[in-house]
């Protein structure tokens, strides 16, 4: 059998077309393909920095199959999902005559990719898959997915009076925005490759800026344009980047 | 009966505590309160520019009650929601002994607030409520609400290969991000007050920047950091503001 990652990508894409068919479009085929693209970019970066080589065939198969068994976020069996996906991946790869000596590498990368499994990634491919999957929780894609999942689960968008939780405990089950602070902004520190850490740092900045812009809007933006100053118009310095369109107000 | 808007706000808040109880947290009490805050800010702006006076009691009641009858976005009866809400508002206000001479003003603002009703706003309060409600679809709040609603309805987040729809027709039922282009970015032009237009213009910038950052991420960001240039590294000028953290790549 061929070991060309691009040919295998086509074959695997056909094998996983049902991904996301349970209605969870935050883990559909498009997610798997984005994870693959990010993983391949990280693989380039890792090799450019002198580590490697990276087995791109293992990485390709692992990216396509890492969520093949989907378990919803609020399901108690969630922590089993990556182990179940690894087992199912072995089944699929066996049926497709995937090179036998590389199947263990794929299965390990898959079972180690999620937080909740608690399995340390032992290979470079496993580290890259983990970083690439976590990247999906950051940046604009991370913003979109956070609120999408909140819509599925029925939590509120944010705490209306204190969206950034200055004076209350964080509660990510109740407020989607809190998930930025309980989990997403901790992700850059969990990245296991240097290019992953760099990319994650950039995308975390976007999350912070988004949260700040949202808080400014929620705090009751005044109408822009010239008008007499009011006592509440005082500005406090903000440690966060200012978004385009988020106005000049601070919380 | 008092006609103090602040006292009525408390009374109305108690009357509408069930808002969003059908699980739609994009139209809950917090939404109503944000619309009120925005509406009052726009009222200040309108009066500062010499229009008015604005009846803040009418505006307060209309903001609390404008979504009192909730109909899901994909329901064919959706276009009736604002008329049904206006009728229900009359019932509630009658029961609360709300000043009789102001109930028509509240009902008109409510029935005219939504696009789908096709009723032109005849009063300043109706124009302000419409602008304030539409503001919720823009800015960071608009981003959050768009993807939240997509999660409820099960549409995809965006088209994976062509998120900004350069080479395909827009399809907002299939892709949440397309809703930015079919509807949200058209909103600033529909604003009926000058302060509403100014605020909407600022918040639309944030939507555009978000869409651009997302497209950059989706297009397969390369790992950041020093590495040899590749042929695909060429940069094209972007007409959109660059977000913090969105990197230097363009699509």
UniProtKB/TrEMBL annotation, chains A, B:
Domain HD: 28-138
Record-linked InterPro entries: HD/PDEase_dom (IPR003607), HD_domain (IPR006674)
Region annotation Disordered: where it falls in the sequence: 218-251
Protein name, as recorded: Metal dependent phosphohydrolase, HD region
Organism of provenance: Rhodospirillum rubrum (strain ATCC 11170 / ATH 1.1.1 / DSM 467 / LMG 4362 / NCIMB 8255 / S1)
């Amino acid at each position: 059998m061929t070991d060309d990652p691009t040919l295998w990508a086509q074959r695997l894409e056909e094998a996983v077309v049902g991904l996301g068919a349970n209605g969870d479009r935050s883990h559909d085929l498009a997610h798997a393909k984005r994870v693959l693209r990010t993983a391949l970019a990280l693989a380039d970066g890792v090799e450019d920095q002198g580590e490697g080589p990276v087995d791109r065939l293992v990485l390709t198969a692992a990216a396509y199959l890492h969520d093949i068994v989907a378990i919803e976020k609020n399901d108690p069996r969630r922590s089993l999902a990556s182990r179940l996906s690894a087992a199912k991946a072995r089944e699929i790869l066996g049926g497709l005559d995937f090179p036998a000596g590389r199947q263990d590498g794929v299965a390990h990368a898959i079972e180690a990719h999620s937080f909740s499994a608690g399995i340390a990634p032992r290979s470079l491919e496993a580290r890259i898959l983990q970083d690439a999957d976590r990247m999906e929780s950051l940046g604009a894609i991370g913003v979109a997915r956070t609120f999408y999942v909140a819509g599925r689960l029925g939590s509120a968008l944010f705490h209306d009076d204190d969206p950034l939780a200055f004076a209350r405990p964080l509660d990510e089950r109740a407020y989607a925005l809190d998930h930025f602070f309980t989990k997403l902004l901790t992700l850059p520190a969990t990245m296991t490759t240097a290019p992953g850490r760099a990319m994650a740092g950039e995308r975390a900045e976007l999350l912070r800026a988004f949260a700040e812009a949202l808080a400014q809007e929620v705090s009751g933006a005044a109408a822009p344009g010239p008008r007499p100053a009011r006592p509440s118009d005082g500005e406090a310095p903000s440690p966060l980047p200012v978004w385009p369109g988020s106005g000049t107000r601070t919380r």
